[in-house]
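Tutorial, part two.
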Amino acid sequence: MTVAPSAGRLGTSVLVVEDDQDLATQLARGLRRGGYTVEHVLTGHEAMAQPEPDVVLLDLGLPDADGVTVCRRLRERSDVAIIVVTARGEEPERVLALDAGADDYLVKPFGLAELLARIRAVLRRSARSDGEVLRHGPLLVDSRARQVSVSGRDVALTPKEFDILECLASDPGRVMSRQEILDSAWDAHWYGPTKVLDVHVAALRRKLGVPGLIQTVYARGFRLGEV
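Running the prediction step on this input gives:
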């Protein structure tokens, strides 16, 4: 099953390299619901022939090639984020894949929520490794210096406002749930009222001064929109 990415997509592209058609279909469905654009291929040869995506989900048990070899070849030609998704859970297999350039390793069976969290994590690391600067339209977020500017104008933010904006800017266009943002800007063990997030987002909008930059998606969360 192949779904061509739309030219004007806001989300992130994921290439699923998996010869189990039923599993690939489930993964693609869940990823699309999460706001990602998905391509699916069955073999390592097809994976190497694809345009470079943002993330590769790579099975090791491919019919035409060893997944570790495919991982190494993908890494040699690009810095794409690679998550190995496999039934092989032994430590030597993990070491081989990570040494071949994989960014993360997830053992089947796994939950969709965990997979999405792993994808978000590798995307954040990829974005921050590029000079620690996140850009989206007129917005620039410097993660290293913890500074923000809009069209060259410096914007002073509180630490929590910065953390929220950095979370949204790590994957522009994708809807971030309230819980995702709370986990990122506070921590996974914070149980305060979620309304505090609305207060911070309202302050962010005022300070950034760009209508439509931070969009509310009813019953889902927030995202950065095209401006």
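The CA atoms of residues 15 and 39 lie 5 Å apart. In part three we will examine how such features are distributed along the chain.
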